[in-house]
Amino acid sequence: MPFQASPSPFSLQGKTILIVGADTPSGISAAKVCTEQGAQVIAQTTFTSPQTAVDGLLHCRTSSGGDTNLPHIMASCILEPVQAIQHLLSTALLRDGSAVVLEKISVPITGNPDLSLEGSLHTLACSLALNAAPRRIRVNTITAKATPTPGEQRDFAHAAVYLLSPASRWVTGSNLVITGQATL
To answer: Sign of the C-alpha dihedral, residues 28, 86, 104, 132?
Structure first.
């Protein structure tokens, strides 16, 4: 019997992936790599309800890295992704067994470079992961550099593909750090 190669666990063939923040450097790179892996990509600047159910949501930070207005930062980093996920879950537009990936960027709070909201997003992601587990929906975050180089943007995209793909079917409530820096 001839050897038959199994499909790549990183393939997104036949999957529909919604990318919010698709106009950001991370979103642009992720849309390209998801398409290369066979996904049908729905690219949005800000979240609007898709016309079809999706197999994955990648929410890239939609506010500029230079924003120092706390309400704007909170809306972009926390409120927008949570509202998008709640809508997709409540309308059954996020299919059972799908994946949600949220981009975390360390954004200093005005006047204090040691404080940021990135921990808040991961805590919310963990809570969402627990709530979505009965539907086998995985929720994870990626911590990325605030101003990535083109190569680092592609690294982000590859990390997103991993978390959106069947290769990460047992990964939920996790944070993948791709900053190139040591962390504690």
So the answer is: negative
